[in-house]
Design goal:
Length: 315
């Protein structure tokens, strides 16, 4: 079982209390959830959602000792607003979202998330879901739309060159594997598959962009944050772990807006929108992994944890 990223920091941020009810919207293998339930004893309970059936199998095994205190549901966290009330999780003491792809998904070659092993170009976090797969996008998107996707979701400066090369290569034969796509990107941008320490593989941004697009990761995040806030009781904590700048920016802006409350134009002398602050920021900026954790788990270096507390009042 892999070590959850920012494990101690997350449990501290959530300020888990005995008997409290909690939601883990991205339960994964259940590492964070197990820690929450241990601290919430006696009487605590947790609702765990995940769109990956394989992750849920691992979570069931990890959380089996907690019996009925752990309720697991196969669902994307975008469905929080429907799933949680249906399971009786309404006024919760804490809610966690650990965003992005997990280590176990990356390390499973058949899932197609990584270019480090040859595999079908899939990238769906929920393999039972329908299309598109990454192969669908690579082979069927018009060149201009593909370039826009790589730039928007991967912040890839060479998006035009990469899209042009992909469009030319797919005319010869459909692009169906991770290794072929990585080779095409490498040929488009030049460079080497592995660089000096600290330098990323040239295909990293392309793979990130395709994964985000396949799973609609940025599209579902804002409404999920709204739903999460509505599911917290006054004093309840919201903790969100993001792994790249696009996700973290959405979370940061959401918290800033809810801390501020009023959204009236600054030139108005009196507030007319009537919005009141719904959150109080707990962390000053983002909490990052310690050097010791990064040494144990290099993937933790990009993790950013932001924490806020629900205030009384507001919808």
């Amino acid at each position: 079982m892999h070590e959850p990223v920012l494990y101690q920091e997350t449990l501290t941020a959530l300020a888990v209390i005995p008997g409290g009810s909690y939601i883990d919207g991205t339960v994964g293998a259940g590492g964070h959830a197990a820690g929450i339930l241990e601290r919430a004893a006696p009487g605590g309970r947790l609702l765990g959602l995940d769109q990956d059936p394989q992750a849920l199998d691992l979570a069931r095994a990890q959380l089996a000792p907690f019996g009925a205190q752990a309720v697991l549901v196969h669902a994307n966290f975008a469905a929080l607003g429907e799933v949680a009330p249906a399971r009786g999780f309404l006024a919760n003491a804490g809610l966690l979202l650990d965003l992005g792809v997990s280590s176990m998904q990356i390390d499973s070659p058949v899932r197609g998330f990584s270019f480090l092993a040859d595999a079908p170009l899939d990238m769906r976090m929920d393999p039972t879901a329908g299309p598109p797969t990454a192969a669908d996008l690579v082979n069927h998107l018009p060149e201009g739309e593909l370039a826009d996707l790589l730039y928007r979701y991967g912040e890839e400066p060479a998006s035009r060159r990469i899209a042009r090369r992909i469009a030319a290569e797919r005319q010869q034969a459909p692009i169906g594997t991770t290794s072929r796509l990585a080779t095409i990107v490498l040929a488009a941008v030049g460079g080497r598959p592995a660089g000096p320490r600290g330098r990323i593989h040239p295909a990293t941004r392309t793979f990130q962009a395709l994964r985000i697009a396949v799973n609609h990761e940025l599209d579902v995040l804002p409404p999920a944050l709204d739903a999460a806030l509505a599911l917290l009781r006054p004093g309840g904590r919201l903790a969100v772990i993001a792994f790249h700048s696009l996700e973290d920016r959405i979370v940061k802006q959401f918290i800033q807006q809810e801390v501020k409350g009023c959204i009236c134009p600054p030139e108005l002398p009196v507030c007319q929108c009537g919005r009141v602050p719904r959150l109080r920021a707990i962390s000053k900026g983002a909490i990052q992994a310690s050097a010791a954790e990064i040494n144990r788990n290099p993937r933790a270096r990009s993790a950013r944890l932001r924490v806020a507390e629900r205030l009384p009042g507001g919808p």
